[in-house]
Structures are given as structure tokens and as C-alpha cells.
Write the C-alpha cells for this entry.
Amino acid sequence: EYGERYVEQRLALAHLYSKVGLEPAVFLGAFNQLLASLEKVAGSHFAALRKVAFFDLALITDTLVHERERVIRMQSEAIRELSTPVLQVRDRMLLMPIIGIVDTHRAQLIMQNVLDEVRSKRARVVVMDVTGVSTIDSGVANHLLRTIAAARLMGATVIVTGISSEVATALVALGISLDEIRAVGDLQSGIEEAERLLAKT
């Protein structure tokens, strides 16, 4: 007989398999081997047994796949968070180093992280260092400009540092308006400029 208690036991077993890292393909192979062995000894009862077996199979494989996808989502989110850190340098000053490729999704995450930290830390200045960014397309540039504008509405000034000649050339070629960007050459100069702005307030 099987009912709610039986399902709970199967799900608990599936979670145990997931914790030890059992791959769905390995489980399916082992389960198929088990069924082949049972068919030899179950005789006429095998048809009924197979119905329960397939019920087990569906529960456990669904749980294994779901848990694997959940772990992948958590890892992906952790990687995205680590790739867009916002660091508090001192009271009211934040630093965001951006390294690597910036796509539209990451640009949105940058905007969200900056604005969240500006609010929670009551920041007045954000130094956004793009030294490690090799190229920026128009979509990403517009996201960064919106981030700067939104931070300004929240009372914070964004200072962009480390714009490479390639990125500067690309932005000009794309016709991106840079009038609202406060930019300096390198990170040290950006922090010095931030200190000057904070000293005025």
C-alpha cells in the first residue's frame, strides 16, 4: 500500500540522494537494473510492482532534477553577487570595482546593487571603477548612465574611474552623452575626488 506517508518517505530518500550528489542518470541506470532483477523473481506480480516503481521513479527523478536546478540557481546568484561587489571605503563613500564583460543583465544588477547600498549606507559618493572593463556597448552604457542618474536622485554622486581609451572611443562612437558623467583617470584620483566632495558637505 502507498499513500501520503509513502510519498514522504520517497521524497526524503530523494533529498538524501541529492545531498550526496547522486546524478539523475546514475539513479536511472541503477533503478533500471533493479527493475530487471525484480522482474525475474516477481513473476505475475511484476506488473503491479512496476506501477509503484514508476511512481517512485517519477518522484525521485523530479526531486533530483529540481534540487540540482535550485543549487545551480543559488550558485549563479552567488557568482553574480560576487561579480558586482559594492564596498564601503568609509562613512558615506562606496567603491564598486567592475571587472570583466558587462552585459545587459549584469548592468541591471550593478544598478540594483549600487542603489540598494546607497540607500542602506546613506552614501553621498560612489566611486565606480571600470579599469577592468574592456568594452561597453550602447545598451550597457545606457544602463550605467541610468544608474548614475538614479543615484543622483537619491543624493549620491557617482565618480567613474579608469575608462580605457577603447571604452572612451566606443562611447563616443556610439553617440552616448557623457555630459552627466563625472570621470577621472584612475582609482586613486577617484577616491581623492570623492574625499573632496565629502569634505564640502
User: Anything to note?
Assistant: The first strand starts at residue 87 and ends at 90. The radius of gyration is 27 Å.
